Amino acid sequence: MAGPAAAVAVVVGGGAAVGTLAATAEPSLPPRTAQQLLVDLQTARLEGLSGTVVQSADLGLPNLPSLSGGGSGTADIASLLTDTNTLRVWYSGPDKTRVALMGTLGETDAIRNGKDVWLWSSQQNKATHRTISDADTKSHALPNDLPVTPQEAADRALAAVDPTTEVTVGRSATIAGRDAYELVLAPRDKASLVGQVRIAIDAKEHVPLRLEIYPKGSDQTAFQIAFTQVDFARPDDAQFRFNPPPGAVVEEATGTPAKPDASHGKTPEDAGFTTVGEGWTTVAVVKGGKDDADAGKTEEGAQILSLLTPVSGAWGSGHLLSGRLFSVLLTDNGTIYAGLVAPERLYEVALENK
Q1: At 269, which helix (H) or strand (E)?
Q2: Number of domains in the chain
């Protein structure tokens, strides 16, 4: 999907309530089929965009040290996993994007202007600069690989649209003052913990304005991200120019930022990455070695494992992280199983791979 998919980021101080995401009365719009809405999303073209985004996550995760950071007030990037956040987004083509994640105690900005990419932390008074190639269109992203606009979240959800997914049209809505259609994705395989993914699509610009993910059997979202204000005019170029303030620590980096993953920075091939199953019930398997098995013996590793649930069975023993949308099994031999499924499915795969 072109254009808007690259847009990211934005906003002003600290923690708008989730209630602000609520849409107003349902508008009257000409009927469109699910297929037409899919085409709208895939053919959307956007010159520019800016706006305010509110994102919230209630994944049912424990308060892990590696997730909680310093709390939402510090604009810690990891808070996107556990808290409610307000961001501001500026987009002027794939090579000019800016995202500001702001808290009451500081802000984190990711800015791309041509080949220049800056990551700025006001709390640390530190800026990291890197020069990238023209081909890299994802370097604007904050380094946690989580979507920070409805467009990015929708792109990932739409990647799952295949025979395993039922696609229907939901109710229209008014979001950020704009009329929107709603596309509903539902896994056909009921073994998935995902019940529905709802994408609200701007009726004129065909850009996602809101995305909501509901766990199976629940009417309360586990993840939602939505514009509360949006403007489709091209932002001024000044929004993408960054000059470190006096006294700031400036680091020069090379290459593209690595995306953190469960394999401790290894490539999928090096980490023994495989998948089992298909669609919404796919289980990712990362086979670790001795270093991975010993990770739990470190102080940080032991602290994290102490917050997880010890589990065992015919497949072996390990620790379980279970949320509203996904489960992760860390076995004592260093292998990781993860998917949008209940723990029982992970145990089955672990037994098959024993």
Answers
A1: helix 268-271
A2: 2
